Amino acid sequence: MANRRHILPLIPLRGITIFPGMVLHFDVGRKKSVAAVEYAMAGEQLVFLSYQKDIMTENPKKEEVSKIGVVAEVKQILRLPDGNLRVLVEGLFRAGMTSFDDSGEYIQAGIVRKNEIPCADAIEEQVLMRKIQRLLEDYFNLYEKMNPEIAASMLEIEDAGELADITATNFPLKPHERQLILEELNVETRMEKLIALMENENNVMEVEQGVMSKLRSSLDKNQRDYILREQMKVIQEELGDFESGQAEADTYRDKMEKRTLPREVTEKLEEELGRLSRLSVHSQEYGVIQNYIETVLALPWDVSTDENTDIKKAKAILERDHYGLEKVKERILEYLAVKCLSDDTKGSIICLAGPPGTGKTSIARSLAESLGRKYVRVSLGGIQNEAEIRGHRKTYVGAMPGRIIAALKQAGSRNPLVLLDEIDKMSSDFRGDPTAAMLEVLDPEQCNTFRDHFLELPFDLSKVLFVTTANSVGNIPAPLFDRMDIIEISGYTEDEKFNIAKKYLLPKQRKANGLDSKMLKIPDKTLKLIIEGYTRESGVRSLERKLAAVCRKAAKEIVEENKQSVTVNEKVLTKYLGGRTYLYEHMSEENLVGAATGLAWTEVGGDTLYIEVNTMKGNGKLELTGNLGDVMKESARAALSFIRANSEAFGLDGDFYKEKDIHIHVPEGAIPKDGPSAGITMATALISALTGVAVNRNVAMTGEITLRGRVLPIGGLKEKSLAAYRMGIRKIIIPFENKKDFEELPDKIKNEVEFVFAKDIRTVIENAFSGGGKEWNLSTLSF
């Protein structure tokens, strides 16, 4: 806005002075002022704000309004219930009033922009600025409640005019004194006037503090508290908003005295109750303290449940709720047996690890029931903030305890079973690492003094039984993993799924959908078809959803067609669920050259892995595709190096790798694959492709290969074996060192599948190729 005359709506300010660059909100109640704001909002949102000399005047005239004011931009308005407006403005620049017209709906003022007159002497300017900054520092030392961020920002201002304006805004000056500073356009004179006012105010504050210090020293603590309390009560009664929190504090104190609380908790509550009794119920701090006291009193400091030590009853509950899982049940019963003999179970943090849908959460619930403990589940999946575990400090708006303390509050007992679900899904960001906070929770040497940021009190977690669940223990940080006793829960066999579905899932879904065994009949053959043709998983979650769908369809048919019962045969099942989702490939019909079947482990169970190899004329290039990880690529190179080193044994030309390009591909390229366990499968497919001898289609294999051709052990044997069994494979080659894992496989798998234990690649070749490797001179292989 140039130095031309403009007409703007004028708002006289009572007891307020605004400076350029200042953001301020104030209430507008006078009709002409309200009309001025509304006019401004309809246009350029500019108003002229000027200091009203007499605050008692309702309709000021021209001579009652200061000629120098500030042009401001209206940022926001809020209509209050009483008809007034709450206005947020930002000062833009100084302006002088040239005309005044109050004949309309609002006051109009002709204004002209007023520019500052800078200091003529730069050194004089620096001297005055430093003087103001020193006076500011003196003021900050005297007035300790000053916001340190505002103080620091004021001391960093480099512009002299801005420093004077900002200082006048934040320094405790009277309104007419601030107006005096605003009207001074000469920056040097403005700073001189400001220095005089600041020196006077600092002197007054210094004397006032000295007087108050002497007064405080003359009164003892009880007298001072009494006088201050009475003064506060009188002031609030005069204002008409005093309502003491004493009655509420007395109620909480009665509750506290009926409890057997730790000494530190009692002392903290006494302190907070004292503060609560001195506050008005309308105070914002009152609600914060009240919430804190109620949270502390709601915690089970002195409440615990009687624990069941009847191991036979516990075994009956586990058998009732779960089919199979013998090793898991055995481990839980071992824990209970130790509990019967010794009350000290420090360090017993159980981690149930396995694919989704295998019953980890329900096992924890059954364990809680068998122990006679309260059960609480805490979901940790996706947690990124450390405050989710430790809580927020109560000074923050909306602060609350962390999930651990909240779980104990929910349980109402200090010895519940707390299930920490999906502990492998936690991550960290700039707000902290929640896994680090979990270390204190799960460490038996630290958990007896766990401090939540909200409580600021130690809570004993040593009586809590923590059970965690995870899909992949590889994603659990090492310090956390070290504190847990891992119980592996592998996938179910089809027989186990059948029994689970028949004994647990189907009755549950019948009941949930208003049916009974007479209304809905599902023969065993149909049930097996659902398992084989409509689900492919390690657990039974998808199977339960399919059974729920069948029950809903049957219920609809019974109601619509007024039937008494429905029997679901294969034809009806196709009508309800559509065609089979999964048609197991059950192996190729013929042996193939350059293709071998491997086995893989995933977080959702085992799967088959097909390795395909093609050779072409070229210059020795090795191409690896299928979204393979670095470890898997290294396995392929190790397998090729082994074949090159033993080319004569396989009847290959020693320079074959120079004349041929080799392409290794693992189908389903959208899925990332990694790990060393496909090493012998890649070696087998490479040998087949290079020699033209087909691989036996009935064989699957898993194992890591070394450059010397030795076969190293792998993990996830049960899941991999189940995947092979589902595909109809009846011969599996595994590392010799995995023999101990073989003993733990289900009897059905061991009886129906032939397992070959290989120490080196010779055993693999003899069992993977239909000719048993007789085509080659395997005796020359060196390991």
Q: What are the main properties of this structure?
A:
single chain, 783 residues, alpha/beta, 5-stranded mixed beta barrel, 28 helices
Helix-residue proportion: 40-55%
Which band does the percent of strand residues land in?
A: 15-25%
From the alpha carbons, calculate the radius of gyration and give it in angstroms. Answer: 41 Å
Largest sheet: 7 strands, mixed
Spatial shape: elongated
Individual helix count: 28
Category from helices, strands and their pairing: alpha/beta
- SS elements, strand count: 24
**Strand order across the largest sheet:** 18-19-17-16-20-23-24
**Stretches where pLDDT falls below 50 for ≥5 residues?**
none
Q: How widely separated are the two ends?
A: 90 Å
Mean pLDDT, all residues: 84
Describe it for me?
There is one protein chain. With 783 residues, this protein is of the alpha/beta class. Helix content is 43%, strand content 17%. It is built from 28 helices and 24 strands. Strands 18-19-17-16-20-23-24 form a seven-stranded mixed β-sheet. A hairpin with a 2-residue loop joins strand 16 and strand 17. Helix 9 packs antiparallel against helix 10. The longest helix is centred in the N-terminal third of the chain and has 32 residues. It is elongated, with a radius of gyration of 41 Å. The protein starts with 5 loop residues before the first strand and ends in a 15-residue tail after the last helix.
